[in-house]
Design goal:
By secondary structure, the protein is of the alpha+beta class. The chain has a domain at about 75-215. The chain contains 5 helices and 8 strands; from the N terminus they run H-H-E-E-E-E-E-H-E-E-H-E-H. The strands form 2 sheets. Strands 1, 2, 3, 4, 5 and 8 form a 6-stranded mixed beta sheet that branches. A two-stranded antiparallel ribbon has the order 6-7. The mean pLDDT is about 85.
């Protein structure tokens, strides 16, 4: 049978163990409380412009030659050096445009597919750059309503975001001007001659024996 003194020693030791556990639990609780939660300062979780900005240069491999889509807003380059008034072969059935060397212009005089056009550097809201071929007045200064309204729209787009839509009843293009202020577009850092080279890489006629001209003459 245990003596009272032994029971007192056991009780004291048990009390000491319990106290030590309580102290450890308290210390753990204090440490947990003092440790900062990731939700205490949510500014660290926010995206910043500095974190999102990456120094890159957009590389252009293809450059369409086409009219603007009727469902997107566009701007055209305000710098006249990014416009080229020239003559191209326009194949409407194939929806293809071929740039023609000036050496052949006189020789091709009277060819109905050879037209005077302005190749206008254009960009849409998605950042897609293309050349908009806008017909110019003929040698007599004549231009139909379709192409006259397109030329006016192109000039308006130097300063405003616009959308060009065909109005079949009026026989011209309608123009919608964006109400929102989207600012100026981010143009590619490329000279116009490089853009032109990409657009007409495989569509440049520099010989009277070019396949396109032979096809138009009925030789092939």
């Amino acid at each position: 049978m245990k003596s009272k003194s032994n029971r007192k020693i056991i009780d004291i030791e048990a009390t000491e163990v319990t106290s030590e556990k309580n102290l450890n639990n308290a210390a753990t609780s204090v440490a947990a409380t003092s440790k900062q939660s990731p939700f205490d300062d949510i500014s660290k979780l926010r995206l910043s412009v500095e974190n999102e900005t990456v120094n890159v240069k957009k590389v252009i491999f293809t450059l369409p030659v086409r009219k603007p889509s009727k469902d997107t807003f566009i701007r055209v380059h305000h710098d006249s050096s990014y416009w080229l008034e020239t003559k191209i072969i326009e194949l409407k059935t194939e929806r293809e445009n071929y740039l023609v060397t000036p050496d052949l212009w006189q020789e091709l005089e009277g060819e109905p597919t050879l037209v005077r056009k302005a190749l206008v550097t254009t960009i849409d809201r998605q950042g897609v750059v293309f050349l908009w071929p806008v017909k110019l007045p003929d040698s007599n200064g004549k231009l139909d309503d379709w192409n006259s309204s397109a030329l006016q729209a192109a000039n308006l787009a130097k300063d405003y975001w616009i959308r060009v839509k065909a109005n079949m009843y009026a026989g011209c293009y309608d123009v919608d001007q964006a109400l929102a202020d989207w600012g100026n577009p981010q143009w590619p850092e490329m000279p116009f001659n490089e853009l032109l080279k990409i657009a007409f890489r495989d569509k440049y006629i520099d010989s009277f024996d070019h396949q396109v001209l032979r096809k138009l003459r009925g030789e092939i």
